[in-house]
Amino acid sequence: MRVLFVTLAATPHFFVQVPLAWALRAAGHEVRVASQPDLVEAITAAGLPAVPVGPRLAQDESVEELRRRQEKAAERLADPPDAQALMRMTEDRPERLTPAFLDGLFTVMTSSIFQNFSAEETVDDLVALTRRWRPDLVVWDTLMMGGSIAARACGAAHARLLYGLDLVGTMRRHHRASLAARPRALREDPLAEWLQWTAARHGGGFSEDLVTGQWTLDPAPAPLRTPTDLPWVPVRHVPYNGRATLPDWLREPPSRPRICLTLGLSFREVMGGEQASVPVLLEALAELDAEVVATLDAGQLAETGRLPANVRAVDFVPLDALLPSCSAIVHQGGFGTSQNALVHGVPQIVVPNDLWDLHPRADLVVRSGAGLRPSGPGPLTPEELRGLVTRVLREPSYARNAARLRDEIAGMPSPAELVPVLEGLTRRHRRSAWDA
């Protein structure tokens, strides 16, 4: 069969898709990967055929554009809160999930995120691609809903592959319940309106699977995923970190406990927002009897001054190669970084900021017993972080719980084992192109 992967032009999102794409290709299926032109080099470096669609996403240049979209969307609301509150997809307090909050959330998320990532030109290119190439299955990034529209336009089966917690599915469930409880005249649904309008341009209409897929592929182990009533299929996370050459020092076992400090690929500029700065993090680790491997680029190193004697700074090293030698990892809570640590059974100290799902993931890591996070909302001090790392290194329960999660992940279906499942689901869901 033919399988099209659709991903946001962000390497961490794409890296999650690579092992499954290669498993399908190794099984004899045709595979292509569609994304904005920004990602073409990363796709081809992974040995997969790239199809650029739409304009460049240019994430590094779009902060002001995102802010403008947020402000414009907020103008539609009677009493808008600040921009961050308008995009709080992690909100789970029942008293806060009011109709006004949910309407505002989806107004801003639709205008500033979903429409931005699946711009008109991008969706048009995706639809043209699927109608020309005729894939049997489309696997799409949960933030790229243009993938579901393109799949429906050609009759392909389609599934979301999650990058992180299923915040979209969870908040969509809350919003639909809120809408159903209101009089019909008060049921404003900006996400459905946008998808209906976009689908109609290609001869179709709206249905909920355009938001959440016909089924969902989730690489997170059960203790670290959000409960959902959506059809879902587990798949083992197999780390892919891009092209890399292993340094000589990584070939020898460390002489003392090794700690990885990483900001992840997604958030190179900040770590934890107001939580901690790079100098604070390094100061905290400087006094430990441990070797610290810090994946810091030149910009981050510029603000640190002289590095502590126990810190080895490297611009990049694949976590899949580094983490087996580590006793702990300090990171910002990104999905790829956390999953790499889980796969190798490494206890985690998570210093999250307010972006997307970092706080709830940090909470899930703590709840699983496989790591710790700062206790309060204030700035993180070197003393607190040093205490967290020391506790994780000294108390065996963290290593035991991390090993338990590692074994649970090893028991999930591998991408290769998932191929027959996807073949069966594709046969069941594939159909002729939609009727107007």
From TrEMBL:
Residues 22-264 form the Erythromycin biosynthesis protein CIII-like N-terminal domain. The keyword Electron transport does not apply. One of its GO terms (biological process) is antibiotic biosynthetic process. The keyword Membrane does not apply. Pfam families: EryCIII-like_C, EryCIII-like_N. Residues 281-424 form the Erythromycin biosynthesis protein CIII-like C-terminal domain. One of its GO terms (molecular function) is UDP-glycosyltransferase activity. Gene3D superfamilies: Glycogen Phosphorylase B (3.40.50.2000). Keywords: Antibiotic biosynthesis, Glycosyltransferase, Transferase. CDD domains: GT1_Gtf-like. Belongs to the glycosyltransferase 28 family. This is Glycosyl transferase family 28. It comes from Streptomyces showdoensis. The lineage of its organism: Bacteria, Bacillati, Actinomycetota, Actinomycetes, Kitasatosporales.
